[in-house]
Amino acid sequence: MRESQRRLSNGFLILLSLPTAAIGFCLSSAVASTTWLLSTRYDLHLENIALIWLMGPLMGLFVQPIVGWLSDRTWWMGGQRRPYLIAGGTAGALGTFALLHLDALATATGLGLMTVAVFVVLVNDLATNVTFNPARSLVADLTPEGPHRVRGYAWMQVVSGVFGISAYLVSIVFGNEVLLLTTVAVTFLLTVIPAFFIEETRPASPTALAPDVDDRGGLSTFKALWPMAGFAIYGAYVAVDRSLLDHALSAVALPLFVGVLVLGIVWGATRVWRGHIRPSAKHRLGTVLLAHGFAWLGVQALFVMTFFYVRDVVVAGADGPLMADAFYAMWSDTAPVAADSAGRVLSVGFLLMNVVGALLPVLVLKPLCERWGKVAVHRAAMGSMALAFAAIALAPPTEAFYYLGMLLCGIGWSSLISIVFAIFSESVDSRQMGMSMGVFNSSLVLPALAVPGLVKVTEALDLDRGVFLLFAASLLLSFVFWMFVSERPPHHPTESP
């Protein structure tokens, strides 16, 4: 293995990608099953489900930077990242298993179902965040900057995408309950076992930083997030209003969200313009985080809200047998249950998105990056995803057009969770990679806190398939901000300017 690791062989890069693949499987499982489970089995309303989905971003906002900072300074069990992979994988398996037994846990503890659901999701998301940051940081730790790192993150997405595809296949063929049980095994096996076969190199002291790098452990990187601070305010408002005030402040939800969104755009545009007239590594980093954040506002909303579009528009309006049900019937001896049709259609759509996401990074994106540059390729991918969302909104609301739109979304998805990591990792000091990856995660967490606001917009405007126009607008903003990102920082972060 040492020789394979030294050569950065494809086999080693696949092994290096397995912990991230476990997270990819978990994410696909959550998209396919969480909203379905909470809505169908536990009869929770969309607003409550959006609040539960909010727990993940809230946990990631605080946990990932802390875990990143700690893992930069940890050496235990022969590694920096290894202890966190083992702990996160074990806790994630237990948290996923608990999702299937929320009612039993509520009865045993005497707590309300909503309270138990929030707690279990918090534990599960804590485990995911403990695992995800070190898993992504490992790729940057063990690959040199340039083509090798792009290749490492491309393989990360390929392997993660393959497991994401398999999660949706399990959902379609065997149902979401089997999917959740499978997730328990995959989470544990793919995070804990590979950790013992990846040899980490003990780093130099993380305090021995380059002259142009902040010596406070990368905390200055948080300053680049200030244009998205309003989203944190909105997320805090939602959590307090729903959990403590029983919707007493619900009347201000929509205007507050609109105000926060406008403020974020204006503040972001100001930062981008300042960086345009006076280019610097600092302003470039801020623009990268801003552009990435608005992309994830649309993507997180897609995860939360698409089930209801599929159920209330695609399935309800179908005038014949569903293709997803027919596919299920090919693999099963039992007739498809109508109540599960929406879940199957949802899973097929995300399956197609992940098929494209798994194949493109190595086969297409990596060669294009070598020719045109990583930023240019990623910018084009965000533009294509915006067009795909718009196409779903404007095309006839049929099962076939939904699948076609999700297939096109895969182009943006493939770059969003592969190439962008290579762009960011070359913008920060390598000795602070864990901390920096935590900050990078905050750039997608903060906008995700505002997803309940998009739910309010959807309800106020009585949108059905038009909700995809909201997703498209968010990706379009991301595309515009990426227009102002240079291919490389004006000064390399690990060198004196």
Write structural notes for this entry.
The longest helix has 35 residues, at 281-315. The chain has helices at 2-7, 10-41, 46-72, 82-99, 102-109, 113-142, 147-174, 176-195, 229-243, 253-277, 281-315, 323-331, 341-372, 374-394, 399-416, 419-425, 433-448, 451-461, 467-482. The protein is 75% helix and 0% strand. The protein has a single domain (2-199, 223-482), classed as Growth Hormone, Chain: A (Up-down Bundle). The chain is mainly alpha-helical and 497 residues long. Helix 11 crosses helix 18, helix 12 (323-331) crosses helix 13 and helix 14 (374-394) runs antiparallel to helix 19 (467-482). It has 19 helices and no strands. The protein is globular.
The structural class is mainly alpha
Helix amount: over 70%
Please name the fourth-level CATH homologous superfamily: MFS general substrate transporter like domains
Task: Give me the CATH architecture, please.
Answer: Up-down Bundle
CATH hierarchy, class: Mainly Alpha
> Overall pLDDT, averaged?
81
Q: What name is given to the CATH topology?
A: Growth Hormone, Chain: A
First-last Cα distance: 38 Å
- Topology, number of strands: 0
Low-confidence stretches: 206-217, 492-497
Major sheet description: none
Binned strand content: under 5%
Using only CA atoms, what is the Rg? Answer: 22 Å
